[in-house]
Amino acid sequence: MGRAFLIAIALLPALPAPLTAAELWIGAASRDITPDRPVALSGQRNVRISKKPETPISATALALESRDGPRMLDRAIIVSCDLVAIRPGILQRVRDKVQPRLPDFDVTRLFLAATHTHTAPVMIEGRYSLPDSGIMQPAEYSEFMTDRVAEAIVESWEKRQIGKAGWGLGHAVIAQNRRAVYDDGSAVMYGNTNAERFRAIEGYEDHDLDVLFFWNREDRLIATAVNVPCPAQEVGGQSSIHADFWHPVRQMLRERHGEDLHVLGWTGASGDQSPRPMYRRAADERMRKLRGLTRLEELARRIVRGWDDAYQAARLDIRDDVVLRHHVQQIELPYRQVTEAEATAARRDAAKYADDPAQLWNYRWNQGVVERYDSQQADGAGNAGMELHALRLGDVAIATNEFELYTDFGVQMKARSPAVQTFLIQLTGSAGYLPSERAVRGGGYGAVIQSSRVGPDGGQILVERTAEAFQQLWAEP
User: pTM to 2 decimals?
Assistant: First the structure.
């Protein structure tokens, strides 16, 4: 071999080391988190008491671990909960209950996410004026629920076994942008579209249906995660416990793939979305009636049909050598500045509701803005902390946020991801709406200062931090 050839080889740029494939261990478990007594429901301004459940609500835990022989490489536990949000303190309470039972597991590697059903129990004391007796109080339900969630987490971890994974993209028209824009530029959530002043639906609708599949060694499907960019709010106004469209979705998938299939519902970026159409309602209703379906059954049919499309393709590419990486970081996002005019209006409205116990929700909604303004004047606006989870599972990226995140931000995150397929999971906390810049200009519920602790500038920082986290996961050898 000539000296010149050897020199040429030495001068070639170093190629990145190939990704080290790993053995994937998978576990899953579910728990019923339906209260056994009447309970107040979260998600509306008025008090609603559920006397008995319409459907069960559940928590489903997915445990993932990658190994190189006996050596653990990385791990994660993800829990999907039929709740309106993961309220402050709930995650820490679950971690505290899990830690003694799984002493070798780093509990910062587990997180919870809500499907955002508006027919789940209240978990915060003082949010509503509730009766002193005859119902399960919010603190009681929180204790009950976190016990059950911790049980599911421990079981999922203890049941993990060597398995296989796959992923696929389907489509389902579930998300419908719910903000109507009028001729003066104003926007109204669920605004009337049959009006001369109506001009447009405000934003994009994401009809992607991203799905993960998990099989055991014998190729039996044991779990699936379904990422729908829409909150579970078809039946949001009723007065009974209900898992919304996730209940019939689970029923249909289990009828086809076994009663022990664990189904995780992950809600994507969808702070401005709803499953209810803003127009063409008559045509939608006609087609549903011709099919002989309820509205919930129709939504479930669409999701399961998209799931089937993804499943048929994913079965052709089942992986048993999947890279798993899980990064957790604390990020800081600037609080949205409260203007003097916003504070004045909120102070006026808070005073209007202050003496009426039935209006406690509206009082707190406005009084919170007044308190933020006073704090801002004394100490500056400051920053909101958020725990960001970013995962790589083979060709898939997954990222979390604690908001009702407007779809515009989710589209940016997906577009800038290096992954073949990107899953976004919102409401891993309870941080309120994070509206787009155009939504703030239009105003209305979901975009006004009362709805939003972090504004569009913070949303853009969240996009940047998420994109950076994805890039880091893909840059590592």
Answer: 0.94
